[in-house]
Amino acid sequence: MDREAxxxxxxxxxxxxxxLVVLDGLGGLPGEGGKTExxxxxxxxxxxxxxxxxxxxxxxxxxxxxxxxGPSHLALFGYDPFQYEIGRGVxxxxxxxxxxxxxxxxxxxxxxxxEDQNGHLVVVDRRAGRIPTEKNRELCSRLQEVIxxxxxxxxxxxxxxxxxxxxRLRGDGxxxxxxxxxxxxxxxxxxxxxxxxxxxxxxVAVVEELLRRVRDVLKGEERANYVLLRGFxxxxxxxxxxxxxxxxxAAIATYPMYRGLARLVGMxxxxxxxxxxxxxxxxxxxxWKDYTFFYLHVKKxxxxxxxxxxxxxxxxxxxxxxxxxxxxxxxxEVLVITGDHSTPSKLKAHSWHPNPFLLYSPYVRWGGEQxxxxxxxxxxxxxxxxxxxxxxxxxxxxxxxxxxxx
Length: 406
Description:
Layout: H1 3-10, E1 18-23, H2 37-40, H3 44-50, E2 54-59, H4 69-76, H5 88-95, E3 105-117, E4 120-125, H6 133-146, E5 149-150, E6 153-159, E7 164-170, H7 201-218, E8 226-233, H8 241-245, E9 249-252, H9 256-264, E10 268-269, H10 277-286, E11 293-298, H11 300-307, H12 310-328, E12 334-338, E13 355-360, H13 374-378, E14 383-386, H14 390-397
Parallel strand pairs: 1-11, 1-12, 2-14, 9-10, 9-11
Antiparallel strand pairs: 2-13, 3-4, 3-7, 3-8, 5-6, 6-7, 12-13
Helix pairs in contact: 5-9, 10-12, 11-12
């Protein structure tokens, strides 16, 4: 029996509530004062909760592997990231509620800043200074007005948040097997378009012309004068969380990529009245009776980690801690607080380090640790384990799994 069939057999649908809180990029490395961001933060509520919870460390993919947000979230949702490889472009488009059909190519885009240096186009800011979302919308509208199709392929630009946007290509003979154009570092030229399969050659030609036309439209802009493209992909088939685990699931997230991933695994996307953490908690409270599994995502821990801003990341952790009593007032049967991956501000990037993991439940076997930190989690009763096992652990502690065997 394979893993999916196994859980379909054991899962039970009950009314108990599971809440998975993902503080994106939570894990860190010792920085100022020899402490990680989580250790430096003032977190009396999480520390108190840790004293009656089970702690551990999760590995999103495997030892030493630095994960992207897509596979690391898939693992937390109970899907083997080696079995399901979901392109970033699909996630970005779905998160912005763009319709995707079989044969479409979905792409994630960044507005960026480039300069002509001795005849070479060089990236000087990969995120165009994180332009305001309003400017993003204006630029996408201009691009859409001028570039509706390329070589008979329909083009759709959809603005995301800050510098991010989604691109959908729809036409015959397209394939998503293209490498990214983002060099990942400033001071380099955008990478040339390359297909990784023979079916992608037509798509390369279309996108090359598209980029030339985008450059013409944006060349007068001071900051967002070009685009970098990532995550060329096509929509896959993936079973829903209800199919696998009998979980009626909902997502509370502000950023499109995470909403897209949640939608891909069958979660309902709950509407938000604002972009702050308080708004996410209000949505959680408003829909608490409607679902049995909630995914609540906090993005800025990761953003500040990538910016190398140690103390800003600390402040986001502290903000969540102040709001934790409002979550506990809902009385979830199971609450997990963790990260999808580590983003140490020391590295300004995702890293391979395991993630702190806290599991609260009336049925937990706790170890008495008095802090929620990387060090405390290393001593926790859960030990170190693959993140793909997080959902079975949550379900067991919510009494949602039948006994296996006689």
